[in-house]
Write a structure and sequence with these properties.
- The chain has about 450 residues and is α/β, with parallel strands linked by helices.
- The protein has 15 helices and 17 strands.
- A hairpin with a 2-residue loop joins strand 9 and strand 10.
Length: about 450
């Protein structure tokens, strides 16, 4: 094992010791740390994303489009699937272990100074945020694309004062922190809209749209909304994805191939295009080059979002972890995949709406294998099984102790009623990003 890798593992352990899931909503500490670092987040323009679902996919599409236009990009997303380095990307690729360690060695001594003065030490997410912003300044990047961790107003990333604020569809999630209603959640998320910002908003329920419009008006921003200023005009299922016709801010973009599945990804693409048009100054009088836009979308990827990792039987990984996300996944499954038999492997976090997720899955899967993922916040398999049996009936539910057993059981179940031909057989592994990460480690060899 290289010294470099050992050093990286040591840094990772130090980060983890801050408590991977510990949350403290207080921007004071991250502001202080960034001040000590010389305010790296001021060194480049930023595009800041919030919303309940679609943030990472949209951020990745924005990144791909900006790179197609020749810009050097920094992208900060969370959570990660395999390594914390995925959270901090330069020009579309996760930073190297060497670069990650170098950034950490720069930030850690200053973080220790902040910790010594504060009631609560900086969180894991505070630290990765500071590492990202410092890495982007050091690179240097032409533009940073950053996704909030949770919420908006009090999220560590909300030190960016970004010129462009992006709001993907808002649904009910993280209610224990953000409020019990769509309206409360929208108020929290619209906190990323700063003075004079341009807001690009996906179509929202009325209760979510109102706080976004109020906040935009309050800070003197301008807003472009899906369905009014931009949106998907047409979409057709194609091999490996879909072909779109998108109304952008600067005109219509035809024959755009997107290698991702589902109407929700088409919506994310329309949002991403409007964001990049706004950033590059396209609008009523100027359209982006459609060829460059096509190139940008063709290069987009979103690991763990209806991602096919095996064939015969087909194994799909999808990180849907709330009913809003699962509804989109189920719609895409029905529209774009014709399985004769589909078995789901499901593991969820204890604070999620397991009933809501399973009720949406029930009509489209033949059987379900419930298990637990490796997150410390995972719901015990037996507890999830009890919920599943209420919805599916005992006969259609199997329980597995961990992911390796769950996959094995699912493959056996999927193949059980099939005579030789496995082409119509599928397995969907879903319920949480942590679930997808566990499965990916086993299947992406």
């Amino acid at each position: 094992m290289s010294t470099e890798h050992t050093e990286f593992e040591q840094v990772e352990a130090e980060l983890n010791s801050r408590g991977y899931t510990r949350m403290v909503f207080d921007l004071g500490r991250i502001k202080e740390l960034l001040d000590l670092l010389g305010s790296p987040q001021r060194a480049y323009p930023s595009i800041h994303l919030t919303g309940t679902n679609g943030k990472t996919s949209t951020a990745r599409m924005i990144d791909s489009l900006l790179r197609a236009h020749g810009l050097h990009t920094g992208r900060y997303t969370s959570p990660h699937l395999e390594t914390v380095r995925e959270r901090i990307s330069l020009d579309g690729e996760p930073v190297s272990e060497r670069r990650f360690v170098a950034a950490y060695r720069e930030v850690a001594p200053l973080a220790a100074l902040v910790d010594a003065q504060a009631d609560e030490p900086l969180t894991y997410f505070d630290m990765t945020t500071a590492l990202a912003f410092a890495t982007f300044a050091d690179a240097p990047v032409d533009v940073a694309v950053a996704e909030v961790g949770l919420g908006g107003a009090e999220d560590s990333t909300n030190v960016l004062d970004a010129g462009i604020a992006v709001i993907t569809p808002i649904g009910l999630d993280h209610t224990e922190w953000l409020g019990d209603t769509i309206e409360d959640i929208a108020y929290a998320k619209s906190g990323i809209i700063h003075k004079g910002a341009t807001v690009i908003a996906a179509a929202q329920e009325e209760d979510a749209a109102r706080p976004i419009l109020e906040r935009t008006a309050e800070v003197g921003g301008t807003i472009a909304r899906e369905g009014s200023e931009f949106g998907v005009l047409r979409r057709a299922v194609a091999v490996g994805g879909q072909v779109l016709s998108i109304q952008g801010l600067g005109g219509v973009y035809e024959e755009v191939f997107l290698p991702l599945h589902g109407a929700h990804q088409a919506q994310n693409a329309a949002v991403a295009l409007a964001v990049v048009e706004a950033f590059l100054g396209a609008g009523a009088s100027r359209q982006l080059d459609p060829e460059v836009v096509r190139e940008g979308f063709a290069g987009a990827s979103s690991p763990g979002r209806l991602e096919r990792v095996r064939t015969a039987p087909t194994i799909l990984l999808d990180g849907a972890h709330n009913p809003h996300g699962m509804a989109a996944t189920v719609a895409a499954l029905q529209e774009e995949f014709a399985f004769s038999r589909l078995v789901a492997v499901v593991a969820v976090l204890a604070d999620k709406d397991a009933t809501g997720l399973l009720e949406l899955l029930e009509p489209v899967v033949d059987a379900v294998v419930v298990t637990r993922n490796t997150s410390p916040r995972a719901m015990p398999a037996e507890e999830l099984a009890a919920v599943a049996e209420e919805i599916f009936g005992e006969v259609r539910v199997e329980v597995a102790a961990g992911m390796p057993d769950a996959i094995e059981t699912a493959v056996a179940l999927a193949e059980s009623d099939v005579e030789g031909e496995l082409s119509g057989v599928g397995i969907l592994i879903t319920g949480s990003v942590a679930t997808v990460a566990d499965a990916r480690r086993l299947l992406k060899r």
